[in-house]
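Quick check before the chapter quiz. The format below is the same one you will see on the exam, so make sure you can read both the input and the output lines.
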Amino acid sequence: MRIAVMGAGGVGGYFGAKLAKAGNDVAFVARGRHLTAMRERGLVVRSALGDLAIERPDIPLGSHIPLGSHIPLGSHIPLGSHIPLGSTSFTDDPASLAPADVVFFAVKLWDTESAAAAIRPLLANGGVVVPFQNGVESIERIGAVVGDDRVMGGVAYIAATIGEPGVIVHTGTMARLRFGPVQTNQQPVAEALHAACKAAGIDAELSADIRRALWEKFAFLASFAGVTSAARQPMGVVRGDPDLRATLEAAIREAWAVARAKGIELADDFVAQQMKFADGLPAEMKSSMLNDLTAGNRLEAPWLGGAVARMGSAARVATPVSSTLYAALKPYCDGARR
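Here is the expected output.
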């Protein structure tokens, strides 16, 4: 299967590496020092589930060989054409790649529209996009750029980040994907992706109600990200402190209420289930937003807690905790002030 990973960070890097190691044709789209390191040394994944190393292709960027051919290491071929998704490649330009069957879309939420525009060439042969992002609005946001029929729904459950350029560090053992079609014509490619994931040893589920699955993750993640970031503390501290634990639970309940108001049938005992889930997470686990905050990077807060507050206001559902957590993080949403 030809797969392009748009955003080779913790999520895209980990699952893309698993798919590449299983023999799929995978291209990683990244930028900056992370891309430079992968081009020079390949991609490394450090995980309690097993380390992985994806070697860099030993051919010049921009090389051309027939689609479907294998690229032997050490090959040299003339520059000047598109790079097929044969074997593995690393690039910052999606337009340099041949069309893909699936675009594994894992960029940060603030890059959604610009990244969606950049992947249009990858969909030329009827490929589909599967967003594995943190919010619940990606299907509509990407669909507005590439066409609604080209976007499925996806959810990733993993704590992973770029530990250093070229290296993905996976915390704990949770590493799961859920995805599914939102239109009937997407069912065949959804099934093909599911088969590829299973063959790669990925815990993957083909969901019949992917929008509900998105909200199940979002209600917890938006709350977890908001509380850990506002407190600057990992999960162990949050769940061990009565006040922080109560704040987390209240934020989850607000997100649950917003989902129900929007017609998403989350379970009656959803909040209790999520608190039980929180108790089973590694104590050292941090949200990706807390990692971004610590590094002085931009934050996804406007599309997480900010989205809960925005959608709650539209649905006339009170969200005082989510709104307060978002307000506390707003000064940092554009990155650290220098």
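If your answer matched, good. The chain has two domains: 2-208, 212-332.
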